[in-house]
Amino acid sequence: MLSPYFQNTLIEAGCDEAGRGCYAGPVFAAAVILPKNFFHPLLNDSKQVTEANRYELRSYIENNSIAHAIAMIDNKEIDEINILKASFKAMHVAIEQLNNTPELLLIDGNKFINYKKIPHHCIIKGDAKYASIAAASILAKTYRDDFMNNLHKEYPEYHWNRNKGYGTLQHRQAIENFGLCKYHRKSFNIQPKQIALF
């Protein structure tokens, strides 16, 4: 059972990212401020929710949250600043875009870079503990999935409509066969094995 909030006095925003471990595409992040009485029986960590239910939840979250925002950092910037910093930056951008200014941030995970002077709590597996983080995980996941489905149309050989850029066997085999494209994260040490022809 998800907790509706961490505390009951400050305006809190839950933050989560999607796509941190992917071989290709951007990392997405979302920030969500929920009303104290927010409830949906399906809400959970996005990895524990079916695809159809994630999209149902997305609509419900967007229609019933106090504020929500989504941000992305593309693969080129990920390669420039590293994936951890890119994940934090995506969260910062999402927080910046909120219509309401939060007074406390709930961050999924064990690390975060301070955003301005807003206090934060890092919560391991927070998307399975607090409703606002779970809601952020749903938004980040569904918007990133939509993005990768669109990239699939441009590069269908990598099957991003199925693997969403993660390093599945099918994706790794496609990299072996076709090499890397402009959406792959070159800093992730995923170069196909090069066969020297002498």
Task: Give a concise summary.
The protein is built from six helices and five strands, in the order E-E-H-E-H-H-E-E-H-H-H.
Note down, in words, how this protein is organized:
With 198 residues, the chain is an alpha/beta fold. The chain has one domain (12-188): Nucleotidyltransferase, domain 5. The protein contains six helices and five strands; from the N terminus they run E-E-H-E-H-H-E-E-H-H-H. Strands 3-2-1-4-5 form a five-stranded mixed β-sheet, sandwiched between helices. Strand 1 and strand 2 form a beta hairpin. The protein is globular, with a radius of gyration of 18 Å.
Characteristics:
single chain; alpha/beta; Nucleotidyltransferase, domain 5; 5-stranded mixed beta sheet; 5 strands; disordered C terminus
Architecture blueprint of SSEs:
Layout: E1 12-18, E2 27-33, H1 51-64, E3 67-73, H2 75-81, H3 83-97, E4 104-108, E5 120-123, H4 131-154, H5 160-163, H6 169-178
Parallel strand pairs: 1-4, 4-5
Antiparallel strand pairs: 1-2, 2-3
Helix pairs in contact: 1-4, 2-3
